[in-house]
Amino acid sequence: MSATSTSTTNRPVISALALSALLIVVLVPMAALLVYGLTGRWDRHWWPEDPTLRWIVEAVADPRVQGAVVRTTLLALASATLALVCGALATIPAALAVRSTTARPHVDCSAAWTSWRCCPSQSRRW
Amino acid sequence: MSLNARTATRLAGPLLLLTAAALLLPFGWRAIALLVDCIGQGNGCAIGELTADGYYLEAAWNTLWLGMLSALIGLAIGLGAAIALLRVPRLESSVTLLASLGANFSGVPLAVALLLLFGAQGVVTATMQAAGLAPWVDLQGLDGLLLAYVCFQAPLATLLLIAPVKMLDGSLQDAAATLGAGPVLYWRRVGLPLMLPSLVEVFGLLFANAAAAFATPFALSGTAAHVLAVRIASLVSGDILAQPELSALLALVLFAMLAVVIGLTRWTAARLRRGRA
Q1: How far is A11 from chain B (nearest CA, A)?
Q2: Sign of CA dihedral B83, B84, B90, B96
Q3: Tens of pLDDT along B80-100?
Q4: Does the beta carbon of B8 lie under 8 angstroms from any beta carbon of chain A?
Q5: CB within 8 Å: A86 and B14
Q6: Distance between CA atoms of B49 and A79, rounded to whole angstroms?
Q7: Coil, strand, or helix at residue A105?
């Protein structure tokens, strides 16, 4: 009895800990970059110093950064489109083909006893 | 709409062509060239260099265990998070969004973020040193690489496991609860065995994701990162001299490692599913 009640209370704690760990490993690196980008320095104490928008303004105004952003976006869009088209062409028709071959005996062969020509593959097996 | 198998195969042509041109052709060509070289030269070829000292084999070993350990840790966090999301469905869309970001937030941005936190001048390191404590992670070492890998493996595992966890029949848990089984017992005896094929397959994908990672270890430690992907790149554009043959051989070793692990996990998952059916 006590074992069951202990396990009942433990399980949500374990999964909640896992969810917290996930949020930490995802959010902490992103937050660190954001905080560092919005401050003058962050290496003397655990708190950041001199809040500023200077780095962001400089990056936005820099033509090399603008070019890199445009190039990265175009490359990402082009590769994503190509991958999506190739992947869709390789999977969707295959799934439709599998579905049509597996669905045919149920639909067509219900009447196969009277007309065996409707489903030759099934009639061969018979 | 119905399609026959021949049309479906023809439509898969672009992907097959791309895979062949980008993967099979170069690897096949390099493998044959290496074999011809070794048959002609004997011990002086790239295979001899690979096994001459343990340096490159150690890189392969590091890649293997880093891939496996980070995949296991990622799997544990991802499975726990996916189970937690079953209990709090209102968090699902936001956690999925964050996990999608985290899974792709690898490479240089992740390395910079970790260096800001745990590097030699990092805020966590400085704070710990100010408090008289030793830094608990060396970013340039293998434990630093493991930490970095977990940062993108855990979100990827969560994304891949949310669907299988949701597909588990909820009435099974109700039935188990009716029979007096708590959540731990349910997951140990029912949930995890049912999820095992998916877990094995996701493990294979996570391992491949970690083993082939290049940007993260390179951005963290440069050519000092002792893993296969970095060794392959450093042999092509090395500081001292380029050794393209050895680089190609290491790429083949990595390819074989990925093929074996992915093949093995898919085979195991298929067997587990067949055994269950």
Answers
A1: 6
A2: negative
A3: 999 999 888 899 999 999 999
A4: yes
A5: yes
A6: 37
A7: helix
- The CA distance from A29 to B155, in Å, is 13
Quick one: tokens of B84?
A: 């937690």
In 3-state terms, what secondary structure has residue B68?
Answer: helix
Contacts of B81 in chain A (CB under 8 A): 15, 18-19, 21-22
Q: Say if pTM beats, i.e. exceeds, 0.90.
A: no
Among B59, B123, B37, residue whose Cα is nearest residue B257: B59
ipTM surpasses 0.95: no
Q: Do residues B230 and B215 touch, judged by C-beta distance below 8 A?
A: no
Query: What helix, strand, coil percent values describe chain A, rounded to 5?
Result: 80, 5, 15
Q: Residue B212: phi, psi to the nearest 5?
A: -90, 0
Q: How far apart are CA B77 and CA B153, in angstroms?
A: 9
Determine contact, residues B91/B85, Cβ cutoff 8 Å: yes
The amino acid at B47: I
Q: What share of chain B is helix, strand, coil (3-state, %, to 5)?
A: 85, 0, 15
Nearest to B141 by CA among B198, B203, B226: B226
**Cα(A44)–Cα(B121) distance, integer angstroms:** 9
pLDDT in tens, A43-87: 777 888 888 999 999 999 999 999 999 999 999 999 999 999 999
* Residue whose C-alpha is closest to residue B247's, from B261, B258, B237, B256: B237
Nearest C-alpha in B relative to A4: B182
Residue type, B20: A
What's the token pair of residue B236? 């092509």
What is the amino acid identity at position A11?
R
Contacts of B116 in chain A (CB under 8 A): 32-33, 36, 42
Question: DSSP states of B245-276 as a string?
Answer: HHHHHHHHHHHHHHHHHHHHHHHHHHHHHHHH
Chain B contacts in chain A segment 54-83 (CB below 8 A): none
C-alpha distances in Å from residue A82, one per residue of A92, B146, B173: 15, 32, 42
